[in-house]
Amino acid sequence: MAVSTSSPEKGISVVTVDFPPVNALPVAGWFALADAVRAAGRDPRTRCVVLAAEGRGFNAGVDIKEIRAGGASTLVGANRGCFEAFAAVYECEVPVVAEVHGFCLGGGVGLVGNADAIVASDDAVFGLPELDRGALGAATHLARLVPQHLMRALYYTSRTVTAGELLAHGSVWRVTARAELRAGALGLAREIAAKDGELLRLAKAAINGIDPVDVRRAYRFEQGFTFEASALGVADRVRDTFGTEGG
How far is CA 61 from the centre of its chain? Predict the structure, then answer.
């Protein structure tokens, strides 16, 4: 289980998440991911970061088993870890391309919603099953991928959307076959990395500065309701049915 960084080409850093079996990240994993993305962005040799994952899917959100076992302190840790990881992607000093395969759920949507571009395989699906898991959050980031009313319907129903559907909405740059995903992500990263590195960093800061929504503040506001659901016992009641028959 690890977060690793590699540099397959000049100017490109690939940050890879690998937490079998489904990339449901523990608290420490979220902080490790945040540190890796920030470090890659600070490296003056890097002009584009690719965020990728090994295994069956890109990301399945937080580790529900860890939260069940750890209680309130672990929930707070997961909240803070997700906040830091999402912010690290958004605030990375250079553009971030998310390379998505399989499932991208919960915290995965938080990551890709804050990325600068998404390249996805044709088997990729995106969604927030938070209401089925006794949680709330990341509507801020789903709203960056789909129109407002679709975001609400997806959130309330816990349904997913495909990479092809997001391509039609303009939030996915390109959809590829699974075998061609890395090549597709590196192709976009290579095109970005060909630009002047100093100017790219200025461009990233400028584009973030004109965003109509403060993603840090909006997500932190959502997290308050996640903790409120936990304090009221609602989260535990729903979470206890997760993974069970009929749950």
Answer: 8
Count CA atoms within 13 Å of residue 227 on its CB side: 15
pTM: 0.95
CA separation for the pair 114, 65 (Å, rounded): 26
Mention every residue, 6+ apart, whose C-beta is less than 8 A from residue 156: 131
C-alpha separations of 34 from 15, 19, 97, 190, 198 in Å: 10, 15, 15, 23, 22
> Do 117 and 171 form a contact (C-beta atoms < 8 A)?
no
Q: How far apart are CA 18 and CA 131, in angstroms?
A: 26
For residue range 108-117, what is the model confidence (pLDDT) as tens digits? 999 999 999 9
Decide: residue 74, CB within 10 A, 0-12 exposed, 13-18 middle, 19+ buried: middle
Which residues pair with residue 175 across a beta bridge? 120
The dihedral of CA 155, 160, 165, 171: what is its sign?
Answer: positive
- What 3-state class would DSSP assign to 93? coil
CA angle 99, 102, 106 (to 5 degrees): 85
Query: Could you tell me which residues come within 8 angstroms of residue 153 by beta carbon, excluding any fewer than 6 positions away?
Result: 159
Is the peptide bond between 21 and the residue preceding it cis, with omega within 30 degrees of 0?
A: yes
Interval 72-84: pLDDT, tens: 889 899 999 999 9
Rounded distance, CA 74 to CA 67, Å?
5
CA-CA distance, 77 to 229, in Å (whole number)? 16
